[in-house]
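Structure representation.

___
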Amino acid sequence: EVQLVESGGGLVQAGGSLRLSCVASGFTLDDYAIGWFRHAPGKEREGVSCISSSVGSIYYADSVKGRFTISSDNAKNTVYLQMNSLKPEDTGIYYCVAQRGTATEQSLGIMWVWDYWGQGTQVTVSS
């Protein structure tokens, strides 16, 4: 059974940092791409970043480039999203997602290509 479990969300002041973790089970990161989406109140879900560790490709949404860093620890089957210089507009529920194979930059804009979703973790950035 495929499972994605996120953790690391919380409340932080603007300019602060958080690190989200996504522990995957039921598959290995060598076979799947992992991404992060977020959903803010009143807005559509937005792809934030994704990583395909098998080919070493990483993509970011323009809104987070230079501030967020995605990484993977294949030995732990875990993907991290380091979020620095957080802004109030980064507030939302952050979901870990997975798709078989490799992801492209376009994958961040297409929710239906992601086969599996975690339950989400809340990130709140106060001004």
In short: Residues 2 and 27 are 7 Å apart (CA to CA). The chain is about 0% helix and 50% strand. The two ends are 40 Å apart (CA to CA).
